[in-house]
Structure formats: C-alpha cells, structure tokens
Write a structure and sequence with these properties.
single chain; 10-stranded mixed sheet; 4-stranded antiparallel sheet; 14 helices; 31% helix; calcium; membrane
C-alpha cells in the first residue's frame, strides 16, 4: 500500500476502535411499562397470591423504589410526562373537562411535534431506538399520513404495536367503552327520528292529513344524520381504534387479541437481537393489564387471583422473555433495565377485580390520591447498581428522562423546563436524598395536590386542595362514572387543604390539623409558596385534549386499504407458553 493509503487505513481503524469502545462504554436501555398495574399486584411489593418471579428477580438483583410517583393517574398524561420529563400540562395534555385521555385514534390531539423525548436525544447519540407495544399519544394532525404525533416522529426508529390502547370495543362483543352516555343519546335520537319519519310517511300514505314532502325529507335527513353520527364513529370503534402498526404502516385492522402477546414479545426479542452490537433503547410498553383482559392459552385459569391475576402473571412472563434475551446475548452488564407501571390500578373495573393498589387510597383516575400515582419502580444493572437496595425517597417517572440522557452522554434540552432529576446518584448510593423537595399532582389541568419533603427530615407532607367525589356515596371510587372527574360538581374543594404525613400515614386515612401537627402552619406556608413559584413556570400551550382535538375525524383515520373499507390481518404468532 502507498503511505497515504496506509495512513487512511490506520485512521479508519482508529475510528472503528473508538466507536467500538464508545459503544461498550455506552449502556443499553430496556424500559418495561405495564398498563394499569397496581403497586400491590407485584410480589416484591407485598403480593403473596400473584406470581411475578421475573419482576421479583429484577428487584433482588437491583434497586427497588418504594415512593415512585407517576405525574398523572391516567394513561395519556402520565406517558406524556414519562416521555418528556415534564408535567403533562406543559405539553397541553391536561384536560379541562371529562375527556382526560385521547379517545379516538383519528383525533388530532397528541404529543406535540415540538416536544423533545428522551428517544430523540438518544438518537443523536447513535442509539437504535425502538418502541414495542402501546403508544396512546396520538398519530396525525391534519392528514391521514402526516404522522405528526407518531412514535417515528418522536425519536423511535422502529415502532410495532398499538398506536392507541385497549378498550372493551377491541374485544368482539365488548360493551361500549367510549362516551357511553353520548352513544346512548345519539341512539335514542335516531330512534325518535325514525319513528317520527315512519309515522308521517304512514299518515301521508293513508291520507289522514296532508304532510309536505319537505317535512318528510327533513325528518329523513335528521334520522340519517343521527344514525350515522352514532353508528360510524362508535359502532365501528373496533376497526377505527384497535389496530396494529409497524412504523407508519397499518398491519392489522382490527387487531387479533388472541395472538397479540406473542407478537409483541417476539418483536421485542428481535429488536434486541438486531441491535446487540450497538447501543440501543427498547421501550416495551405492554397492553397488559388494561381491560379487556387477555385469555391466553398458557395462562388462563392458572393464577390464584382470577383473570386479572392471569394477566399479571402473563405480563411477568413477557418481561422475563426479554430479560432472558439480554442475558443470552451477554448484554446484562451493559444494559440498564427499568420496570414500572404508568399509574395505579383501575379499581372500578369489574373485569379487573383483584387488582390491588396495596395499602394506598384510591386508584386510576382519582387525582392525587396515592393509590393512583404510586407505582412500582425497579432499576437493574449488574455490576453498576447494588443488588437488593431499597430507596424510600420520593422519585418520579419523569426522572427516567434525565437519567437516561446523562448516562448516554447526551445533552438535556436547554430551551424548556424539565421537572425530572437524574436518579443515578440516588441509585448508586452517592446521594441519600431525593432532589424532589416538592412534587405537584394534577387532576387534568387542575392542581389537585402537592407534597413537601423537608430538608433534614423524614417527613413527607402532602396536601389535597380538592378531592374527587366518590360515587355512590361511601364507595372507594367513582363506580357510577367508572372514572373520577376533575371539574365542577364532581369534586370537593378543601379550605384548609387536607393534610397528611405520608411517612406516618401512607394510606392517607387521618387528616392532620393544627392541634395534631406542630408544623401544620409551616407546611401550608411552604407548599403555598412552592405552588406559587411552580405556577410562574407554566406557559399557555394549545390544549391537545379539547373536544375539537379528541373527536373522530375520518380524514385522519389510519387505514389499511381504501377508507372506509379498512381491513387487514398479519401472520399469526404464538400467544405464550403451552400448557
């Protein structure tokens, strides 16, 4: 070789070696999130009836967080905060009224394109980024193929899964699950219009009295309009909402729930195998244990806690499969594994009976009550994090963002406020205190509660400015509406706020008073000042959950085939272990 060629070869070799060293030094990330899982549903958090050996193994070999807090008690806002490291109302995903999550896949609301997710930052660091499973943060803005809210537009190179979520409408024969009262009113309106139309037609035909053609035509149009507004968006929800996508392509519509579990696991395994020689981020976002619950062959009837327990054990099996691949490929010491739930369990769901939020009051969609926002949190990284460590300091799902970015050597966004903090000093034992002196808890866009962890104190004071009204009176949840609301007559304001010391009363059973808590006045003053400072950081942004953004728009509907004839199926996969 000529000298110049030899120099070029040496330079190329140096660059390759440098890249290999950087890849070895840069950790992989596997994030595993279960949907609607209560903190008490897991063995290592106190459940002795449901078997979760794989999750428990991660806890024994890693760090378990006992005060891990979701930023919201519902899917869409909680996942927004997780992806962005920011309270969801900063992204416009705090609701003003009854609609607190994205309701239709063909709505125009979602995670704004100008948000910077941790996946976007990791892409700039050379990571292969993949999301397998549930998204529920929107798809399109103005046209069927703009994909402005899609995972591929938010930092994920690869996406396979549910761009929406599971609803009972996804299950053949399932009961209406979205705006059921609105559906009922539209159906009754169409019936009244049909009866009126047929009555006038009969009167005209029999000649009882004269009825104008315009009147009959107007009633016919009213019936057709009311029937269409009811039937097209609502009765076809299984087709519109319950789909699978691979990147931007719809691959199954409606999706087959019987084979979904196996396909998600296989996709997650293949993503790891494809990217084993470079740094990768895998976000496995399970559809379990959201209703409708799965009845997979290998798990149905196997748990001691009914169908719900079967689903928890199946979710544990899915995560175990992914961990097995990491170990088989000798990636364990280079891979940080994280496990959590997006919020607390849904206790009003009759199908989810057996779900348990532990000793904590409330559950999914119940504002700031602890049962809806305190979730399991486990970090596992052999050789880097201590095994069997338990941290009882307040932490947040929003903390995952800066933790990952800093570990990857990335740069945190400087053009916006981040509400999360890097957890690594706490996880490694270099720090004993959480950086969250104050945390704020929202019900929709309304500040519902706040907590204060004073310096040089183990106390964790929490105040509720308002609480949801449970129904029927005396119940432990909102059984009449299935989800608690955050506005108007659905809540009760408290002046002074309800106050608890979670260090002594984690179940929030006995409110403190000036007579029972010496620091009562100081707590109210400190939290009031913190709330005032927090509100100064909020900027007005478009409301992604307005009626105009959440309602079904046919021109935004993802479709395989020619709209409205959307139908396709993917090759079937296995649904889990046999027997």
């Amino acid at each position: 070789l000529r000298p110049r060629a030899r120099r070029e070869c040496r330079c190329a070799s140096i660059r390759e070696n440098t890249a290999r060293k950087r890849h070895r030094a840069t950790p992989n990330f596997v994030l595993m999130m279960v949907d609607d899982l209560g903190i008490g549903d897991v063995g290592c958090y106190g459940n002795d009836t449901v078997r979760t050996p794989n999750i428990d193994k991660l806890a024994r070999g890693g760090v378990k967080l006992t005060q891990h807090i979701a930023a919201a008690p519902l899917c869409t806002p909680s996942r927004t905060a997780f992806m962005t490291g920011r309270y969801p109302l900063r992204s416009g995903l705090g609701a003003k009224g009854r609609v607190q999550v994205i309701l239709f896949l063909a709505g125009s609301g979602g995670l704004p394109p100008n948000e910077t997710t941790f996946a976007k930052v990791l892409q700039t660091r050379g990571y292969a980024t993949g999301l397998v499973g549930k998204w529920h943060l929107g798809v399109n803005c103005e046209s069927r193929d703009d994909h402005c809210h899609h995972p591929n537009n938010h930092g994920f190179d690869y996406f396979y899964g549910l761009p929406f979520t599971l609803y009972d409408d996804c299950k053949p024969g399932g009961k209406p699950d979205i705006l059921g009262d609105v559906q009922g009113k539209l159906w009754h309106l169409s019936l009244v219009a049909a009866v009126a139309f047929l009555t006038l037609v009969s009167v005209r035909v029999t000649g009882l009295f004269e009825v104008g053609k315009k009147t009959i035509g107007a009633l016919a149009l009213l019936w057709l309009a009311s029937f269409s507004v009811w039937y097209v968006p609502f009765k076809l929800l299984g087709t519109w909402n319950c789909i699978l996508m691979r990147n931007r392509d719809v691959v199954e519509q409606p999706m087959n729930l019987e084979t979904l579990t196996g396909r998600l696991v296989s996709e997650a395994e293949r993503f790891v195998e494809r990217n084993q020689h470079k740094p990768f981020l895998l976000f496995l976002s399970l559809a379990h244990v959201h209703t409708p619950l799965f009845k997979s062959k290998g798990f149905a009837g196997k748990s001691r806690n009914g169908l719900y327990g079967d689903n928890v054990e199946e979710a544990d099996w899915m995560m175990g499969r992914v961990v097995d691949v990491i170990e088989k490929l000798n990636l364990s010491e280079r891979t940080l594994i994280y496990f959590t739930s997006d919020h607390g369990g849904h206790i009003e769901s009759s199908e989810a009976s057996g779900g348990w939020n532990g000793i904590y009051r409330g559950g999914k969609a119940m504002g700031g009550w602890e049962g809806g926002i305190r979730v399991p949190g486990i970090f596992h990284w052999p050789g880097r994090l201590p095994a069997g460590k338990v941290i009882e300091e307040p932490t947040s799902l929003m903390d995952v963002y800066p933790t990952l970015v800093n570990l990857a050597g990335g740069e945190l966004p400087k053009d916006r406020i981040l509400d999360g903090h890097d957890l690594l000093p706490l996880l490694e034992g270099r720090s004993r205190r959480s950086e969250h002196e104050f945390m704020f808890h929202y019900c929709g866009m309304y500040l519902n509660a706040a907590r204060w962890h004073p310096h040089n104190s183990n106390a964790i004071f929490k105040v509720h400015f308002f609480t949801p009204n449970f129904s029927p009176p005396g119940a432990g949840g909102c059984y009449e509406t299935k989800h608690c609301m955050c506005h108007g007559g659905y809540v009760t304001y408290h002046n002074p706020p309800l106050m608890f010391n979670l260090a002594e009363d984690p179940s929030e059973r006995t409110a403190l008073t000036a007579e029972t808590e010496p620091r009562y006045t100081e707590v109210l003053r400190q939290i009031s000042q913190a709330v005032e400072e927090h509100r100064k950081t909020l900027q007005p942004v478009p409301n992604q959950l307005s009626w105009g953004n959440v309602l079904w728009k046919p021109w935004l509907q993802p479709c395989c085939g020619t709209f409205p004839f959307c139908s396709c199926s993917e090759a079937r996969g296995s649904s889990g272990p046999a027997g």
